Amino acid sequence: MKKIQISPSILSADFSQLGNEIKRLEDAGADMIHVDVMDGHFVPNLTIGPPVIKTLRKYSELTFDVHLMISPVHKYIKDFADAGADIITIHPEATKNLKESINHIKSFKKKVGVSLNPDTKVSIIEKELENIDLVLVMSVHPGFGGQKFIPEVLEKIELLKKIRDKKKYKYDIEVDGGINFENSKSVISAGANILVSGTTIFKENDGNIKKNIETLKEV
Predict the structure, then answer these.
(1) 75: which DSSP letter?
(2) Which residues are known catalytic residues?
(3) What pTM was computed for the model?
């Protein structure tokens, strides 16, 4: 079983104190930092771009886990690689040629993630799974934080683990959307090893980030 890791989403952080928030997350035991990038087109919300990520990079040496919810995505990959992203995750629907975009990310020596929306089937990316470092399973419809977890995605997580085990692939399985203390165990049990969480990490237990990260890791 892969080590369970927590990737806190800064979407739930205090945006006026992002540098300090990232330091707090690192001190509290976060394994990586999840950065949601939205364009108001592919998803109905706007967040941050490469200049902000480049500025935040100096605050932490943790892995920057950057989820691009933008379309068309291919032409912006270099900008996010140059800004300091360590993992660049894209949606298959946001590129004309998934293989080409995967290879483009790899050309910058970055890890490749591919994200599946709740309605996107694993079969759409199955041919590329051996070339992917991470599969991000969305357990809400992307765009806004604070949504409720969609339990039907557990079957998708189980399928991804089954394929990985059978084919001896190496990809991580990450889950993002409505993750809390109640559903985290079932997500881990299904096969996920990286959990993205924003609201739970920043708000529960009176904002005790360290305790919240540790609790989410419990199996």
Answers:
(1) G
(2) 36, 176
(3) 0.96
